[in-house]
Amino acid sequence: MHTDLVAALDIGGTKIAGALVDGDGRILARAQRATPAQQHGETVMRAVAEVLGDLAGSPLWGRARSIGIGSAGPVDASAGTVSPVNVPGWRNFPLVDRVRAVTGGLPVELIGDGVAITAAEHWQGAARGHDNALCMVVSTGVGGGLVLGGRLHPGPTGNAGHIGHISVDLDGDPCPCGSRGCVERIASGPNIARRALEHGWRPGPDGDASAAAVAAAARAGDPVAVASFARAAQALAAGIAATATLVEIDIAVIGGGVGKAGDVLFAPLRKALTDYAALSFVQRLTVVPAQTGTDAGLVGAAAAALARTPDVPAASR
């Protein structure tokens, strides 16, 4: 029986998931609540406390030695606060202190959700065995995280690797983040769909105007849908190549809903990458789909907790 056991929370705008996870990444107990995203911040915290309460009801809870939290961002791991864009009641919300209080003082490790998925992919997914990797989540937004020198690299605030907000189009559209021409403004699901609609693509009889519907149209050969994915692929390639040039990653892993589009995305992405990743030391860069599924956020939060709380006391580290 594995003695390593941690609690994990995966906090997003739709759901708050919790689990007890062992040192091999197996989920041994779970709990979940819907995120009351538009409610008062204390109401959101109550849902978090209920998830932790469910986990505490497990006979395994007594063995949990720390808690890992992967949260929608931005997060500030140095301050222990979160300000998720789609949870307006939480602005600089002291999540780490509150979770510590609810759980009787267990150590808490906070990272952004992109970093959490990176931790999961490095531990159990497509980046396994790679010491230098970029993992991306391409869905409603574009997030990511880095593994450098064999270790997760969350950065001081827990947001390092946030590739969605690298500018790849100098005079591009204003991005809600305040910059211009960001990867996310071109390559996220809603922006792929927006571009297709602006250029004359029309949804089928079901009215589905999502990026998944655009992907289906692209697979069927619709030129506007194909072009919208090609543009997204170009933005992703530019961001990935910039990252590889800066820190020498040798693999980029793409997950999230848009990452499931398959060849419609990956074929133009690999082609565009040969244009942007031209220097000798980035030419071996590979791009692959993510392997960890819907539990990636929980598994990654657990990985961060396990990595940061070795059995030696903190004082002697």
Total of DSSP H or I helical runs spanning 4+ residues: 9
Name the structural class.
Answer: alpha/beta
Can you summarize the main beta sheet?
5 strands, mixed
Question: What spatial form do the alpha-carbon principal axes imply?
Answer: globular
Q: Indicate the percent of residues in helices.
A: 25-40%
Strand content: 15-25%
Number of strands: 12
So what's the CATH class of the largest domain? Alpha Beta
CATH architecture of the largest domain: 2-Layer Sandwich
At the fourth level of CATH, the homologous superfamily of the largest domain is ATPase, nucleotide binding domain
**What is the straight-line distance between the termini?**
26 Å
Low-confidence stretches: 311-317
CATH topology annotation of the largest domain? Nucleotidyltransferase, domain 5
Run of helices and strands: EEEHEEEHEHEEEHHHHEHEH
Mean pLDDT: 93
C-alpha-based Rg, rounded: 20 Å
Name the strands of the widest sheet in spatial order: 3-2-1-4-7
Q: Could you say how many structural domains there are in total?
A: 2
Family: Belongs to the ROK (NagC/XylR) family.
Protein name: Sugar kinase
InterPro entries: ATPase_NBD, ROK, ROK_cs
